[in-house]
Amino acid sequence: MINRFFSFGKRDFDSLSEQEVLALAISSEEDDARIYRAYADGLRDQFPASAKVFEEMEAEENEHRRRLIEVHKKRFGDTIPLIRREHVRGYYERKPDWLVRPLGLDKVRDMAEQMENQAYRYYLEAAKRSSDADTRKLLGDLAQAEKGHESLARRLGMLHTPDDVKDEEKATEHRQFVLTYVQPGLAGLMDGSVSTLAPIFAAAFATGDTWQTFLVGLSASVGAGISMGFTEAAHDDGVISGRGSPVKRGLASGIMTAIGGLGHALPYLIPDFWTATAIAALIVFVELWAIAWIQNRYMDTPFLRAAFQVVLGGSLVFAAGILIGNA
């Protein structure tokens, strides 16, 4: 959630000048070329033929960079503004090579397909912003080059049949579902479930009043849901990143945040304090394991690692709330 608030200090894509749009494209092509080189180096021992493909993709990105620099020199001179993807709100991000290791063929194939699709979206939007005919033509050509790349599955020497096409379409649909609903919803569920633990249980043990505890939980859950929903919707319009409608993502994040907090606030509608607290603690346990399951199911996080991170973090916050409430 902290990273999303940091995004408010970034530039909007619409605020970039044509020179800055070109500069951003140049730096992005440089980064992508380095990533493809790292993929090639990581695959060379086990998959030499696939490594060769990524070397060719690196060469293509370098050629794109060269053409962009030529247009920039022609229109704006030799000085290229220092603007990178992390300076622009909603711009797609790239994970450094060491974050996606160990490199497997399926993993780098998926990453490369995302890179090409995101670059295609960027060039389409950039071309709309350009009033110069030559620049607009170049950006349009680069968009088609990214989109028109031969299927990566074919380029990696894999059989491409009609069934494979259907599988690829299903995979694309699944990826979009994860980006639009699962990721923001999971972030909201984690924030709502964990961040409200301390205030709810602190209020419970400090007051011993189930109704007052419920009101604290209700206000914390609804407030967090509104905050997370607006933050998710505002920090990325989804046009370039391809993450989908900001409204859908905002609703997914906000609703799941509120649900995460209300899950262990609703038991305090029960008048008996210890009965309500026992049920709330049980629900917290279920929530934390549900988060770990979702991470494993949709985010490919190993279940034991996800469970350890979520349950340990939640347990610490839970304990903090009880200790503060009894202070």
Describe this structure in words.
74% of the residues lie in helices and 0% in strands. 33% of the residues are buried. The chain has 327 residues and is mainly α. The model is unreliable at 1-7 (pLDDT under 50). It has helices at residues 2-6, 18-43, 48-76, 105-129, 133-147, 152-155, 162-195, 197-207, 210-235, 246-262, 273-298, 303-325. It starts with a helix and ends with a helix. Helix 2 runs antiparallel to helix 3 and helix 2 packs antiparallel against helix 4. It folds into 2 domains: 8-160, Ferritin, core subunit, four-helix bundle (Ferritin, Up-down Bundle), CATH 1.20.1260.10; 168-325, no CATH class. The protein contains 12 helices and no strands.
List the helices and strands and how they pair.
Elements: H1 2-6, H2 18-43, H3 48-76, H4 105-129, H5 133-147, H6 152-155, H7 162-195, H8 197-207, H9 210-235, H10 246-262, H11 273-298, H12 303-325
Helix pairs in contact: 2-3, 2-4, 3-5, 4-5, 7-9, 7-10, 7-11, 7-12, 8-9, 8-12, 9-10, 11-12
Radius of gyration: 24 Å
Count of domains: 2
How many β-strand runs?
0
Q: State the helicity in percent bands.
A: over 70%
Low-confidence stretches: 1-7
Most strands sheet: none
Strand content: under 5%
**Helices and strands: which structural class?**
mainly alpha
Helical stretch count? 12
H-E order? HHHHHHHHHHHH
Cα end-to-end separation: 29 Å
Report the mean per-residue pLDDT as an integer: 80
Label the overall shape. Answer: elongated
Quick structural gist:
The chain has 327 residues and is mainly alpha-helical.
